[in-house]
Write a structure and sequence with these properties.
Blueprint: H1 9-20, E1 28-29, H2 40-49, E2 53-54, H3 58-64, H4 77-93, H5 96-103, E3 109-113, E4 116-120, H6 137-144, E5 150-153, E6 160-164, E7 167-171, E8 185-192, E9 196-203, H7 207-216, H8 221-229
Parallel strand pairs: 1-2, 4-5, 5-7
Antiparallel strand pairs: 3-4, 6-7, 8-9
Helix pairs in contact: 3-4, 3-5, 7-8
């Protein structure tokens, strides 16, 4: 499970190369292919080339439909301003064909593996941009009424797994813009048997090249700092 690539082609390539070493049956992406970094078309093209099942993220929705806002819930006005800069830059960059691909992504998906029903969303089953942070009130509410065996989401950029009774909440982290305090990108593998087993993997890559590309394209310096530090 991968998520929140945010136009970081080097992060995505590193994660997919690492996944190839594992004995996986299927790769699913929980959205936000675009935004923030400078390679949106390259990321979309690679996802399409690899036929990776992908859920629509809030940035995919905003870019695909050329919206005025990205759907990010930032309390700091400066962060909202930066998100708008990112959105406008990405809308200008992405081809019409790739915008159509983003518009056609599903908002949710339920797949059955080994008798387990797993739901995939970007934010939450309630909203595309809802943060289900670990141990949060929102996560408790969602899982309190959740009807499948596991929920896999993204949006927070921090991978984790937690069991609520017999049901699992799993966050796929970020393969392009991690918020773990490390620049290494990350993803998760779910092993399915009688019980689910979740493994979190981190992968090093040339984040400095991505940070420099952000600066060279005159995007906010904070974007480059976030890539270098794994914060933001």
């Amino acid at each position: 499970m991968i998520s929140d690539i945010h136009s970081n082609i080097l992060g995505l390539e590193a994660v997919l190369k690492d996944i190839e070493k594992k004995n996986v049956d299927l790769t699913v992406c929980t959205g936000d292919l675009v935004g923030y970094c400078t390679y949106p078309n390259e990321v979309i093209n690679l996802i399409r080339q690899k036929n990776i099942l992908t859920i629509m993220g809030n940035y995919d929705d905003a870019v695909g439909y050329e919206k005025l806002v990205c759907g990010c819930d930032y309390p700091d006005p400066k962060d909202m301003e930066n998100a708008s800069i990112s959105l406008n830059f990405t809308i200008d960059m992405v081809t019409e064909e790739n915008k159509r691909f983003l518009r056609e992504l599903p908002l949710e998906m339920v797949l059955k593996f080994e008798g387990k029903n797993i739901m995939f969303v970007h934010g939450s089953p309630r909203r595309i941009n809802e943060y289900l942070k670990e141990n949060s009130k929102e996560a408790e509410e969602v899982m309190g009424e959740f009807k499948y065996d596991a929920l896999v989401c993204g949006h927070t950029h921090i991978p984790y797994s937690k069991k609520y009774g017999s049901k699992w909440l799993i966050n796929a982290g970020s393969a392009g813009k991690p918020k773990t305090g490390s620049p290494d990108v990350n993803y998760i593998i779910i092993n399915i048997g009688d019980e689910l087993n979740v493994e979190i993997y981190s992968v090093a890559y040339d984040y400095e090249k991505i940070a420099n590309e952000i600066i060279n394209n005159q995007l906010p310096i904070k974007f480059a700092e976030n890539i270098r530090t794994g914060r933001g």
